[in-house]
Design brief:
The protein has 196 residues and is mainly alpha-helical. It is 57% helix and 6% strand. Helix 2 packs across helix 4. The longest helix has 20 residues. The N and C termini lie far apart (80 Å).
C-alpha cells in the first residue's frame, strides 16, 4: 500500500481515536490534523513511500525542513507530539513495529529573560517613604535583596543571627547547602536597623 493512503488511513483512525476515546478538544484535533498533514507532505518530499521506511532520520529531516520553513520551537514540539501519538497508535494496532519519533527532539527555542525594573523604577521603589511597620519591613527586604544579590530562597531562609549590621555582612545558605558571606550595602543596613 502506498505510504500516502496508508498514512492517511492511520491519521484518520488516530484522530478518530483522539476525538472519541481521549475526548481531545476541537483545537487539539485541528492542530494535530495540520501537523500530521505536514508530516505526510515532508515524507512524500523525502521519497519515503512505505510505512516501514519511516525512521528516526526521516522524522529528524521533517523537523529540520519545517524549521527551515520558519516553524518555531513550540510548533515543532507540538508537531513531534502529534507524530509520537500517531506512531504509538500505529504500533499498538500492528502497522509499525517501533515508534520512529521516540528520541527525536525539537530545536530549543530562545529563552526569554524576565522583565526587570530599570534604574529609575528601582530607585522609586527603594525611595518610597514607609507608611507602616509592614512597609518598613518590605523596604528592608528590598534593600537587602537589591544590594546583596541574594537568591529568593536565600532571602527566605535568612534569620537575624546571620545579619552582622556592624560588620556590614550577611551569611546565607544557598544551593547545595553551601554557606557564603556577602557584603551588606550601607542603605540595606540602615533600612534593616530602621525596621528592627
Amino acid at each position: 500500500m502506498a505510504l500516502e493512503s496508508a498514512l492517511q488511513a492511520g491519521i484518520d483512525d488516530y484522530l478518530g481515536y483522539l476525538e472519541a476515546t481521549r475526548r481531545a478538544s476541537r483545537h487539539t484535533l485541528a492542530a494535530y490534523r495540520r501537523d500530521l498533514a505536514l508530516l505526510s507532505t515532508c515524507l512524500a518530499q523525502a521519497g519515503i513511500d512505505t510505512a516501514q521506511g519511516i525512521d528516526a532520520a526521516a522524522i529528524r529531516q521533517s523537523v529540520a525542513a519545517l524549521h527551515r520553513r520558519g516553524l518555531g520551537s513550540r510548533s515543532l514540539q507540538r508537531f513531534l507530539s502529534a507524530c509520537r501519538g500517531l506512531f504509538n497508535h500505529l504500533v499498538s494496532n500492528g502497522t509499525l513495529r517501533v515508534n520512529p519519533a521516540l528520541g527525536v527532539a525539537a530545536p530549543k527555542g530562545p529563552r526569554k529573560l524576565p522583565a526587570t525594573l530599570d534604574v529609575d523604577q528601582t530607585a522609586r521603589l527603594l525611595d518610597a517613604e514607609p507608611q507602616s511597620w509592614e512597609s518598613l519591613r518590605d523596604g528592608a527586604i528590598m534593600e537587602l535583596f537589591y544590594s546583596s544579590g541574594l537568591r529568593l530562597s536565600e532571602l527566605c531562609r535568612l534569620d537575624l543571627p546571620e545579619l552582622d549590621l556592624d560588620g556590614a555582612l550577611v551569611t546565607v545558605t544557598g544551593k547545595g547547602n553551601r554557606t557564603r558571606t556577602i557584603p551588606l550595602g550601607a542603605q540595606a543596613a540602615q533600612a534593616l536597623r530602621r525596621w528592627l
